[in-house]
Structures are given as C-alpha cells and as structure tokens.
Amino acid sequence: QAVVTQEPSLTVSPGGTVTLTCGSSTGPVARGHYPYWVQQKPGQAPRTLIHDISTKHSWTPARFSGSLLGGKAALTLSGAQPEDEAEYFCLLSYGGVRVFGGGTKLTVL
Amino acid sequence: QLQLQESGPGLVKPSETLSLTCTVSGGSITMSSYHWGWVRQPPGKGLEWIGSIHYSGSTYDNPSLKSRVTISVDTPGNKFSLRLSSVTAADTAVYYCGRLEKYWGQGTLVIVSS
Questions:
Q1: Given this model, what pLDDT does residue B66 score?
Q2: Of A46, A87, A99, which is closest to B96 when you measure between CB atoms?
Q3: Burial label, B26 (beta-carbon count in 10 A; 0-12, 13-18, 19+)
Q4: How far apart are CA A93 and CA A29, in angstroms?
Q5: Of A56, A71, B79, B93, whose Cβ has the fewest other Cβ atoms within 10 Å?
Q6: In whole angstroms, what separates CA A4 from the centre of its chain?
Q7: Residues B3-29: tens digit of each pLDDT
Q8: B92: distance to nearest CA of chain A, Å?
Q9: How far is A8 from chain B (nearest CA, A)?
Q10: 3-state class (DSSP) for residue A98
Q11: How far is CA B91 from the centre of its chain?
Q12: pLDDT for B31 beyond 90
C-alpha cells in the first residue's frame, strides 16, 4: 500500500505564509490522485477544506489554497490566523483506494 | 445541506463484529457520483481511511484491513453501513462517516473491550 508523507509539524507566525506538502511513495502526486486537504482541531470532527487539488468550499477561508508543487500536493496558508492552528491531513486516491498522510500539526506562534 | 450521523454500539467485545450505520439527511444518497466513506481515528492518532461505497454498490476498501471490512448501502433508507469483523483492541477508535470531499459526520467512539 502506498505511503503518503507530510511534515509532522510546522510553525508559522501570525500573518505569515506557510506551505504544507503531501508526497506519495509511488511517485509524483498528480491530478489523478485527487488530493484533499482536511483540517482537524482538537476535539472536533475533521472538515475538508480543499478537494481535487484546489477546489474550495464555502467555509474555506480565502487564505488557504491548494496546488501541485514539485511533485507533491501543497496547501498554502497566506496570512495565518490563530484559529488556523490545527492538524492538517492530506488524502490521496489510488484508483479509488484512498490513503491519508500522517498529518501536519500547524502551530501559529 | 447534507448531514450525516453515525450510529451503533459504543462497546464491542474482542473477536466480534463492529457494525455502524451512517444516516444521510438533507439530500439523497443517490444525488451524487461521489463515494460515501468511512474513516477512523484511534485515540491520539491520525486518520485512517477504511473504505467507501457508491450508491450503485461499487466499493473500495483499505487492503491493510485484510478483508475484515464490509460496506453496504441502503438507498431506500438513505444510509450506508460498515461491518468490521474479528475486532481487537487496535480497532478502538472514533469512526466517522462522510462524503469526504465535503461532508463529515460528528463521529462515534467505538471501544473494543471484554
């Protein structure tokens, strides 16, 4: 089974910019992996911020954006806010079978 | 706006079968070409994708769960279900259902213990 890799932890200053990445053990992440980015705050259910690389929902703050970057899926946060402190999971599809990354704990400090 | 609610026993004995149902409200389970899925999260750990089903009945599941997973759909009842057989303490987790590109349930804690 494929392994999806994420940075275990990142720190960003309030108002700063940070990029979280999501790699695949099988090779470059591509459009056909339909990357999702899922945010989870302590004690809460996850919620999907972005799906299919870059498609946002009505609840997704404009400061979040998704892309493919250097063979990985990427989630960029521009203008970090304290409420963005959370764990972020990426989810990749391998022909319908999906695999989560281990998550990135983002600290806004 | 779709809402999803997990239901089922919160305590399951080792070696028995865990059964959960996800009831969808606010829209039809047949309304979309997306799959409906199950995810779990052991205490203090990350998310694990369990499997998914389309309303037509086609399924995908996590090969690491070694065929213990059965996912089924009840379109008249607007719900889908998860069965996980031969459970052990390692299956203790919060179980979430969802249409993962957009909708998640609130999750239900299942403890495996005698």
A1: 74
A2: A46
A3: exposed
A4: 10
A5: A71
A6: 11
A7: 999 999 999 999 999 999 999 999 999
A8: 17
A9: 11
A10: strand
A11: 13
A12: no
